[in-house]
Amino acid sequence: MKRPDFIARQSGNPKGLLGGLIARIMAKETAPENLIALDLLELEEWDRLLEIGSGHGATLAEAAVRMKNGSIAGIDISKVMVRLAEKTNQQNIKSKLIQIHRASSDDIPYPAKTFTKLLSIHTIYFLDDLPDHLAEIFRVTAPGGRFVLGFRPGEDEGFAENFPDNVYQIRLKSEVLRLLEAAGFETITVHEEDPGRGRVVFAVVERPGD
Questions:
Q1: CATH superfamily assigned to domain 5-206
Q2: Confidence tier at 169 by pLDDT (50, 70, 90)
Q3: What is the Cα–Cα distance from 160 to 154, expressed in whole angstroms?
Q4: Between 130-140 and 173-183, two packed helices, what is the crossing angle to 10 degrees?
Q5: Which phi and psi (to 5°) does residue 115 adopt?
Q6: For the CA atoms of the chain, what is the radius of gyration?
Q7: How many other C-beta atoms are found inside a 10 Å radius of the C-beta of residue 142?
Q8: What pTM, to 2 d.p., does this model score?
Q9: What is the pLDDT of residue 1?
Q10: pLDDT at position 164, please?
Q11: 9/92: higher pLDDT
């Protein structure tokens, strides 16, 4: 059954009481994909990590367990998600291990070449100007830095059948990989897995060293 439009829009930018409920549902639904992405990043203790579309904040919390001496940041456009992530990560925010900002991925509030590791899962469906967002992500990636982008591809027929295309930008895997390379990234590997809700592509790319 196709997801109703109003639910689909809430998935992209949760708002109000319904947004809070959807945020909690999403935290459970997307947990497997987020853990896969963290593994693919091969986090090291001193990494500088950015999660784009940090949502509920559970992935930031898991990263904090793996990175005791690094720095972790999350951005999300949803006020609801930022508040939830701040609540989830109160102690790590207090200790300055984690920072969370309300921001869009086409205007990331950090200097160029800041982050050694970045991830973004299930976000690109809601981005009309994907090349602009990828260019901004490239800007804040350090030379040699790794970025994992997770998404359901247009080749997955079940995705298009169940999600409204007037809300979701459904893109082929080949298109997304092409846009990543056009932004300046080099593809390291493309990992595909079905965590239980459909096929997910994890593009693992790096910014070339200067």
A1: Vaccinia Virus protein VP39 (3.40.50.150)
A2: confident
A3: 7
A4: 50
A5: -105, 135
A6: 16
A7: 19
A8: 0.87
A9: 47
A10: 53
A11: 92
- pLDDT tens for 137-149 read 999 999 999 999 9
List all residues 6 or more positions away from 48 whose beta carbon is below 8 Å from its beta carbon: 70, 71, 73, 114, 115, 116, 117, 142
| Tokens (6 digits) for 31 | 């947990």
Give the pLDDT confidence of 8-30 residue by residue, as tens digits. Answer: 444 545 555 455 556 665 666 67
- Reading phi first (left if > 0) and then psi (alpha if -120 to 50, else beta), residue 14 is in beta
Domain boundaries, the chain: 5-206
Please state the three-class secondary structure of the chain as a single string.
Answer: CCCCHHHHHHHHCCCHHHHHHHHHHHHHHCHHHHHHHHHHHCCCCCCEEEEECCCCCHHHHHHHHHCCCCEEEEEECCHHHHHHHHHHCHHHHHCCCEEEEECCCCCCCCCCCCEEEEEEECCHHHCCCHHHHHHHHHHHEEEEEEEEEEECCCCCHHHHHHCCCCCCCCCCHHHHHHHHHHHCCEEEEEEEECCCCCCEEEEEEECCCC
Cα 154 off chain centre by: 18
Q: What pLDDT shows up at residue 42?
A: 96
